[in-house]
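Study this one:
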Amino acid sequence: LSTVALREISKHPDDRRRVLSSAAALQTVVSGVTYGLLVLGLVVVRYPTDISVAIAIFGLSLLLVPIDLLSLTYYADLRLSKLLPASLVGIALNFSLIVGALILNGSLAVIVAAALAALVIQYTIVGYLSVKVLIPLSRPSTALWGSLIRESLPLAINSVLVAIAVQAPILYLSRLSQDEAGLFNAANRLPQQLLLLPYAMRATT
């Protein structure tokens, strides 16, 4: 959805406010439905209680995604440096709060809540900066939803398939051993970071 919205506001700068507000409203609905499916999945899969609670807590971060749509105005104007302070604050808070929770021997739910708190603060800053640029905000239009969904669907399907390919081994291992799943996930981060190089090159071109 963000890819399609970015294309539209780049092609039609005068319609930026209406497109972004409509896309953000659509993303709010999608995020809510996705979180509902996440909770339903927890009921079906039946992880240990502490893990299920932690997933449900961090899953609330899905509801922050609409703010990403509003921040696309900075992407369209190639002014990503304006969002850098918020990213740095988020990284620093994430590290500090999680380390603090670990020092205090917090439960898994507390650790995850600390990570969520850092995200909420980061997204609050991004949301403030984005709304400040987009004022006056345009009223969302559901008339745009059909075209946004139609254009986004192929990309969405691709994203889902990639996510399944990446997460399937971890989900399978987690049913056998939580410790092994944790080690695999940590090791799996290394090749994933290598993907950032072609992404960076693609972004600049």
